[in-house]
Write a structure and sequence with these properties.
Elements: H1 6-15, E1 22-24, E2 27-29, E3 36-40, E4 47-52, H2 56-72, H3 80-96, H4 98-109, H5 113-135, E5 141-142, E6 149-157, E7 160-164, H6 170-183, E8 187-191, H7 198-210, E9 217-219, H8 224-232, E10 239-243, H9 246-258, E11 263-267, E12 273-276, H10 282-294, E13 306-310, H11 314-325, H12 346-361, E14 365-368, E15 372-373, E16 381-382, E17 385-388, H13 395-398, E18 405-411, H14 414-422, E19 426-427, E20 429-433, H15 437-446, E21 451-454, E22 469-470, H16 482-485, E23 487-495
Parallel strand pairs: 7-8, 7-10, 8-9, 10-11, 12-13, 12-20, 13-18, 17-18, 20-21
Antiparallel strand pairs: 1-2, 3-4, 5-6, 6-23, 14-17, 15-16, 19-22
Helix pairs in contact: 3-5, 3-7, 4-5, 4-7, 5-6, 10-11
């Protein structure tokens, strides 16, 4: 069925089978302790399935298996063209199981089914296929040496890599981590978010079906604190990649230093500026201003939560944004017409409500939304919210809320817009809207972020790198630049007699 209705998806949700076990050494298995933890549907607060609660012993077993798989050379020394074939087949299997994966992601995260089916699952397949297709196009180097010497520069896999992924985009972020790390020949220990592990567990089985050798990919659901620390301090793990909050990222850097200095790459928080000049296409800018904040319920590290508008059009443009915001009222994620679902859990639901109150207490003007909604569902729904007359020293302008809350600020000229945009500990993403190419490009260059859009928001694809400046992290996901994170450069210097 090509175009499923809400009733179709609800029927599928009633019959879907959940896999909650860990994936260790090529098979699904319970945690050694036998302990489990339920994962819940944010749309109604009901339990979905009991998931293996892995601990340090499971992690040690997985690391041992991953190390053995790496040292065997079955994957790490496989010809890149052959690794490519496995990864392309894996991507094909993800596409073949797209309905199941989309439904799992919808139920586990609360993301609208239209997003998981049309964005998240295709994106994951595309990322895995692209990295696989790219890996046999990466050439080693010969340096310019004297005629009696030959210097070879090769890229070698790190070894065993830990990937810790967040709950807001579990499937697509997992693909961002797994695709380049596996393509370059590493073994990977994947630690999914404890509250959204289901798609990661599912695709591990598909990877084995595609031909990935046992032990090369391990999936360990479990508590983020204890499990994350154990993996981050493990002496037999060579690299670590993490997407999540800045405070946790700082801890992981400390753990790296306390252990074996494992290479650590972080994609962290954001408070992204979305700058609109008076000469912009205001209709397009207003529509995207709402999308930039309310997509995925604002639970997006790149969300354009600081809308910075030229003073001369502030009121007019705000009215336009409000009108575009009306279509983002939350609803049932299983309904294909729904554009925004619930917050991930009660804690995040409360956090959003608290920040709305903080903004009002600081003197911001609540001009749209601001309330919890659909409480009869048992889910964690919150209205899209717009706070106007915000200044950049307010907490709602400086702190990452991770919810559907927009802070509207104003500026008089380009210099002030740049100053406001850069007055943040974060530097992940942003955008500028202007039909003056000079203004647009100069502002885009001056804002200190890893990704900047000109007359667009959320622009980019797998061919371009993604990551942040300042306390938004280091390293890069996506593109061939991601291969740098998962490889070591080795020089072999040869002298001829």
């Amino acid at each position: 069925m090509l175009n499923k209705t809400a009733l179709d998806w609800k029927a599928a949700a009633d019959t879907i089978k959940f896999e909650g076990r860990a994936f260790i050494n090529g098979r699904y298995t319970d945690a050694l302790s036998g302990q489990t933890r339920a994962t819940f549907n944010p749309a109604n607060g009901k339990a979905l399935v009991d998931v293996a609660l892995c601990g340090p012993q499971d992690a040690d077993l997985a690391v041992k298996g991953a190390r053995a798989a790496f040292e065997s050379g079955e994957w790490s020394e496989m010809a890149p063209a052959d690794r490519k074939m496995v990864m392309v087949r894996w991507a094909e299997l993800i596409e073949q199981h797209s309905d199941e994966l989309a439904l799992l992601e919808c139920l586990d995260v609360g993301k609208p089914i239209s997003d998981t089916k049309n964005v998240d699952v295709p994106s994951a397949a595309r990322t895995i296929r692209w990295s696989g297709e790219a890996i046999d196009k990466v050439y080693d180097q010969i340096s310019p040496t004297p005629s009696n010497c030959l210097a070879l520069i090769k890229r070698l896999p790190l070894g065993v890599v830990t990937a810790i992924v967040p709950w807001n985009f579990p499937l697509s972020t997992t693909a961002w981590k797994l695709a380049p790390s596996l393509a370059t020949g590493n073994s990977v220990i994947l630690k999914p978010a404890s509250n959204t592990p289901l798609t990661a567990i599912y695709i591990a089985g598909l990877a084995r079906e595609a031909g990935l050798p046992d032990g090369v990919l391990q999936v360990l659901p479990g508590p983020g604190g204890s499990m994350g620390k154990h993996l981050a301090t493990h002496m037999d793990i060579d690299g670590m990649t993490f997407t999540g909050s800045t405070p946790v990222g700082k801890l992981l850097m400390e753990y790296s230093g306390q252990s074996n200095l494992k290479r650590t790459f972080l994609e962290l928080g954001g408070k992204s500026p979305n700058i609109v000049f008076a000469d912009a296409n205001l209709e397009k800018a207003a529509a995207m201003a709402a999308t930039a904040v309310f997509y995925n319920g604002g639970q997006t590290c790149t969300a354009g939560t600081r809308l910075i508008v030229e003073e001369s059009i502030r009121d007019k443009f705000l009215d336009m944004v409000v009108e575009n915001t009306r279509q983002w009222m939350p609803g049932d994620p299983l309904d294909p017409a729904t554009m925004m679902g619930p917050m991930i859990d009660k804690g995040q639901h409360n956090t959003v409500a608290e920040y709305v109150q903080i903004g009002c207490d600081e003197g911001a003007e609540l001009c749209f939304g601001g309330k919890r909604t659909l409480q009869e569902s048992g889910g964690y729904y919150h209205e899209p919210t717009i706070l106007a007359r915000v200044t950049n020293d307010m907490r709602v302008a400086q702190e990452e809320i991770f919810g559907p809350v927009m802070s509207v600020l104003s500026f008089k000229d380009a210099a002030e817009a740049v100053r406001i945009a850069n007055d943040s500990i974060f530097g992940l993403a942003g955008a500028v809207w202007s039909n003056n190419i000079n203004t647009a490009h100069q502002v885009a260059e001056a804002v200190r972020v890893g990704t900047m859009g000109i007359n667009n928001y959320f622009g980019g694809d797998v061919t371009v790198p993604f990551g942040g400046f300042k306390q938004s992290g280091n390293g890069r996901d996506k593109s061939m630049h991601a291969f740098d994170d998962y490889t070591e450069l080795k020089t072999t210097w040869i002298e001829f007699d």
